[in-house]
């Protein structure tokens, strides 16, 4: 390939045009530290929101609406248990995500990214659906005792609003799964391409 | 391994043109995206520097971060992955008659597949098969066949003016 040395020379001379004065490394270091902080916060964000919801529910059941019947207690367990499993899944995902150092080989990087998005797909898909089902069953197990304490019109309103929440959640989960699947497909195509010689 | 901001400054000074050139080739000459990507790569270099164990040269290490960041960057910025590539393609098409040889080479690299683009830029930078294998993580023997195919394809694009 005799022309190839010419290309190499062109490439290496072209690089000289890219040498710039001034490094601006202080800005890069600051941005890198900010990026690290933001990345940690965005990952912890979901866990924090879910944990607050969990604590809120516990406090609600303990101080505002202390249910007495067995059916209601099972309902509470379903709701809190589902939420706790979701929090644990997020913690697991966080640990997986953080074990992605940027200096792996490309092959390892692609493999790890695929594993990570597989996990995200599961969390956004099967996991979320199971947890939501548990949550809904739990909620409806509470309603017999709950209805003894509030007026019927509020119960009807609650059931109607639940339909809207369910529709919203359906689209949200569908979008999350579709996004994860699209990303997974892109990484998978890269992996196939990488192993073709 | 201990590192200081001076180590990072030295790496930045030495490898920024190399990284910027790879970024430009990868995003098909989109200057804004290349600058953004270069900055992101050096942010990753800074964040990973404490974990550098010296098992490879700084050059191959920086290349690993460059390649991985490039691949992830395009997947985070899906617009670049799907739309701007075609736009860049037509822009290059219009400029070809006035472009110098370097620009032609650049435009030709832009016509290659994503992984091939990254690999050929390492070849143009004179990295050995072993070093490229160290960056990519595939057997240098397999790499040899692939590189030969990419070189042939690149030559074909340049000679036939397929921009």
TrEMBL record, chain A:
Keywords: Membrane, Transmembrane, Transmembrane helix
TM region positions: 44-64, 70-89, 123-142, 154-173
Name of the molecule in the record: Uncharacterized protein
From TrEMBL, chain B:
GO molecular function, one term: DNA binding
Organism: Marivirga aurantiaca
Coiled coil: none
Keywords, comma-separated and alphabetical: Sigma factor, Transcription, Transcription regulation
Superkingdom, taxonomy of origin: Bacteria
GO biological process entries: DNA-templated transcription initiation
Residue ranges annotated for the RNA polymerase sigma-70 region domain, each copy included: 14-79
Name by which UniProt lists this protein: RNA polymerase sigma factor
Domain RNA polymerase sigma factor 70 region 4 type: 105-154
NCBIfam families registered for this protein in UniProt: sigma70-ECF
Family designation: Belongs to the sigma-70 factor family. ECF subfamily.
């Amino acid at each position: 390939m005799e022309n190839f040395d010419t290309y190499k020379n062109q490439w290496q001379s072209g690089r000289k045009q890219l040498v710039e004065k001034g490094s601006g490394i202080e800005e890069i270091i600051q941005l890198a530290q900010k990026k690290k902080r933001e990345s940690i916060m965005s990952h912890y964000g979901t866990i924090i929101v879910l944990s607050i919801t969990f604590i809120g529910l516990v406090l609600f059941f303990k101080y505002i609406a202390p249910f007495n019947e067995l059916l209601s207690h099972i309902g509470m367990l379903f709701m809190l248990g589902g939420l706790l499993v979701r929090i644990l899944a997020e913690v697991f995902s966080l640990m997986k995500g953080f074990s992605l150092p940027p200096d792996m080989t490309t092959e390892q990087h692609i493999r790890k990214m695929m594993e990570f998005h597989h996990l995200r797909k599961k969390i956004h898909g099967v996991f979320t659906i199971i947890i939501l089902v548990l949550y809904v069953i739990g909620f409806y197990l509470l309603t017999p005792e709950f209805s003894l304490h509030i007026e019927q019109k509020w119960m009807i309103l609650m059931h109607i609003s639940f339909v809207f929440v369910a529709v919203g959640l359906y689209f949200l989960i569908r979008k999350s799964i579709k996004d994860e699947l699209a990303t997974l497909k892109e990484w998978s195509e890269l992996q196939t391409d990488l192993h073709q010689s | 391994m201990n590192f200081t901001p001076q180590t990072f400054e030295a790496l930045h000074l030495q490898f920024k043109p190399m990284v910027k050139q790879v970024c430009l080739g990868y995003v098909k000459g989109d200057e804004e995206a290349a600058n953004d990507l270069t900055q992101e790569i050096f942010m990753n270099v800074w964040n990973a520097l404490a974990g550098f164990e010296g098992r490879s040269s700084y050059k191959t290490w920086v290349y690993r971060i460059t390649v991985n960041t490039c691949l992830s960057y395009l997947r985070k910025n899906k617009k670049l992955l799907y739309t701007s590539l075609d736009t860049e393609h037509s822009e290059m098409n219009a400029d070809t008659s006035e472009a110098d040889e370097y620009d032609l080479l650049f435009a030709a690299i832009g016509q290659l597949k994503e992984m091939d683009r990254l690999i050929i830029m390492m070849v143009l930078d004179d990295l050995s098969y072993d070093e490229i294998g160290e960056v990519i993580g595939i057997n240098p023997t397999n790499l040899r066949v692939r590189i030969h195919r990419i070189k042939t394809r690149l030559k074909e694009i340049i000679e036939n003016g397929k921009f």
